[in-house]
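help with these tokens:
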Amino acid sequence: MQPFLSLACSDAPIRIALLHIDPENGSGAGGLSLAGLVTPLRLVEQQLGAARIIVTLHRLSNSLSNIDDSELKKINKNVHLVLLIADELKSAPSHDEIRKLAQLCQQARFWGAVGAAVLWFANVGKMERIRSALPWALYAEANEVAEHAILMPNLFELDGHCLTCCGGAASIDFALTLIHAMFGADVQAHVMEALCVERVRNGDERQRIALQTRFGVLQPQLSEAVTLMENNIEETLSTDDIAQLVGLSRRQLERQFKQYLGTMPSRYYLELRLKKARQLLLDSNSSIVQIGLMCGFSSGAHFSTAFGTQFGITPREERQRKLSAG
């Protein structure tokens, strides 16, 4: 997120180009991924005007042979952010055409992909060592790129100058997060009110179906391990206990967490407990000490330190922020 915040200091209008691969050759209305991005950004355009933001939408057929290079270059001229959007894997252009699109996108200061386009870029080697939010349904197709792409089951990822989103309804959270970074909380709140959105999900929230369905089918032991963690927040289990309960060695369990979740079991478990604690701080009247104990922390000091490291503020400051907002 930090590099992207630099756009907030721009005096010139922020230019965003959305490239949508339309399997209906330009006649389709677009899917949820496209609507989730375009609608919030258009609302900002209406509120702030062209002096602050210019959003262009370009519908491309799944065969780019009818689009010449000069037209593609016009799309990218002076653009700050270019995103390639695709909802369907079957509408993929050829690898050569994807490379052409990737080169176009990478000329912008910030670039990225949404939905199936994340896998397209990964397949042509454009996501090496980049944390990328891949839609859960496409993990079965991603085996060939797993060695060099850091594929994450999160809603979206902002890794340096590359931005990715799993698509679908998460596109709304993605767009609202970018709006907050570029124009601040007041503009974001205006768009949220217009869309009747009460809460913006963080990028590091997991795709729930990714855990329940993808892992349940392809990695049942990993799915079982995550379920054990979710069901044992207060009375925590050790990594060795979890490995034994799901029928894996500790090393095998750690390897699966690293490959499919990008982290170690102990770290994932800690983040689960801290997110639960944050929810309780905001949604309950339990004391901070009680919440720490309810989330498996043996002391208030341990809870406060871990919470501060994860979220950048102390539990007391989080609770105070809730009271101030109230």
About this structure: The mean pLDDT is 83. The beta strands are 14-22, 53-61, 81-86, 110-115, 131-133, 150-152, 156-159, 162-165. The longest helix spans residues 265-283.
